[in-house]
Specification:
The chain is of the alpha/beta class. The chain has a single domain, classed as Rossmann fold (3-Layer(aba) Sandwich). It has 16 helices and 16 strands. A hairpin with a 5-residue loop joins strand 3 and strand 4. The longest helix has 17 residues. It is globular and about 65 Å long. The termini are far apart. The protein binds S-adenosylmethionine. The site of S-adenosylmethionine has 20 residues, from helix 4 and helix 6. The site of S-adenosylmethionine (SAM) has 20 residues, from helix 4 and helix 6.
Length: 408
């Protein structure tokens, strides 16, 4: 039935534990979200990232996660001939932890990046979270100016880099850019469809006529415009979730990368066009009925990477999705852990390091359910010499993280 298909009941136990991971990295001194409610959606009124909120994400678990992602961007910058300027554009930065850790890498590699004009651009809809991000990244409470057409907030990071906030990717200036979306696409709204004897039907939300104030899932009595537009003729599944907003965003990223160069790294819960009913809600680190108290829980659906790939419309090359544990291993997390363990004096820090490594890498925790997916301009994966000299044997610079790490 539609109800059965559209509830969170058949989500695997692995995914149920998704945001209930306890003991994240210590948050001492980090600003907490403002609990005052405002009228709108979940992110604009709650935005509960971190241990005290509704979910804990990988960057919140260990700074090593952001470090390795920072290294991925520096590696792509070097592989593309060290352009004179780049923008780091993060979609949905949460508390700003990931950009904070990436900025630490950029700062540590200051001598390498000294001649490069770096700027940070955050796309964030939540006023509350943008305040938290500003405090985390600039150390200041910044004045927001909603009237400003270019960016609604501006500042300078603690490491001296210009930083800007926008509500929409289209407001971010064009130019060679590194895009980052970690646990962003899964937060965007989806359409749900169920195959029936009469053909595909959209799953809609209705008010239960028998119980006051209760919402329920129903099947549309006939085909809807979304059903006509979003179901692929070759679809074999019986239940499908489609996120058109993700499709539009990917098209925008692909168009920008094709024109200006750079790379996009997307990390999220997801599948390659195989899963069916993944829509679920989380509140206070527990699974929460998606229809109960709308706007108070974090609603999420797995990202369909096959759909994202399709929506690039061949404008860029794509890599992945590959599992988080593979990506981090390829990025050298084991080596980094060894160095950190050797440099730490006390057993508490060592235990903390091992614990956070296990959270990120264990296939039963975050290692297998998160995926990494990249968009790159086609020329990045085409041999530069081969065009002019087909016999050339010069190796193509590999894209870090998506192939095995070879230590010389
Ligand atoms: C699950 S949080 C992820 C936070 C962060 N990337 C991390 O991994 O810790 C989702 C983020 O996306 C933002 N967000 C949600 N919908 C958005 C939209 N349509 N446009 C821009 N940001 C959005 C939220 O406010 C929040 O910062």
């Amino acid at each position: 039935s539609s109800k059965q298909a559209a509830t969170a009941q058949n989500v695997s136990p692995l995914l149920r534990s998704r945001r209930s991971f306890a003991s994240a990295r210590p948050q001492a001194g980090r600003p907490r979200p403002d609990p005052r409610p405002s009228p709108q959606g979940y992110y604009t009124r709650r935005g509960g990232v971190g241990e005290s909120g509704d979910f804990v994400t990988s960057p919140e678990i260990s700074p090593v996660f952001g470090e390795l992602i920072g290294i991925w961007y520096v590696s792509e910058w070097i592989a593309t001939g060290k352009p004179k300027a780049f923008q780091l554009v993060e979609l949905g930065p949460g508390r700003g932890t990931l950009t904070h850790d990436i900025l630490r890498v950029f700062n540590q590699l200051a001598s390498l990046l000294s001649k490069c004009d770096v700027s940070i651009h955050l796309v964030e809809v939540s006023p509350k979270l943008s305040e938290i991000q500003a405090l985390m990244l600039t150390g200041e409470k910044l004045q927001s100016n909603p009237e400003d057409k270019s960016a609604y907030m501006k500042g300078i990071t603690k490491t001296g880099i210009p930083i800007f906030w926008y509500r929409d990717i289209q407001d971010v200036p064009q130019g060679y850019s590194f895009y980052l979306a970690h646990e962003f696409f899964d937060a965007l709204p989806i359409h749900k469809f169920q195959r029936t004897e009469k053909g595909w039907r959209e799953v809609l939300v209705d008010i239960d006529p028998e119980v006051p104030n209760r919402l329920r899932f129903v099947l549309a009595p006939s085909s809807t415009p979304a059903t006509e537009n979003f179901i692929q003729p070759e679809e074999t599944r019986d239940h499908v979730e489609v996120c058109p907003e993700a499709g539009v965003l990917i098209q925008r990223l692909a168009t920008r990368l094709e024109k200006d160069g750079g790379a996009a790294l997307i990390a999220d819960y997801g599948h390659d066009g195989t899963k069916t009913d993944t829509f679920r809600g989380f509140r206070n680190h527990k699974l929460h009925d998606v229809l109960k108290a709308p706007g108070t829980a974090d609603l999420t659906a797995d990202v369909d990477f096959s759909y994202l790939r399709k929506m690039t419309q061949g404008r860029t090359a794509t890599l992945g999705p590959i599992k988080q544990r593979e990506f981090l291993k390829n990025m050298g997390i084991d080596l980094r852990l060894q160095v950190l363990l050797q440099n730490s004096q006390d057993t508490t820090t060592q235990e903390q390091l091992l614990h956070s490594y296990d959270m990120l890498m264990n296939p039963k925790k975050m290692g297998d359910c998160f995926n990494f997916f990249a968009l790159l301009p086609h020329h990045r994966l085409t041999h530069p010499d081969k065009k002019h000299n087909p016999q050339s044997r010069a190796p193509l610079v590999p894209v870090a993280g998506f192939g095995e790490l070879l230590l010389k």
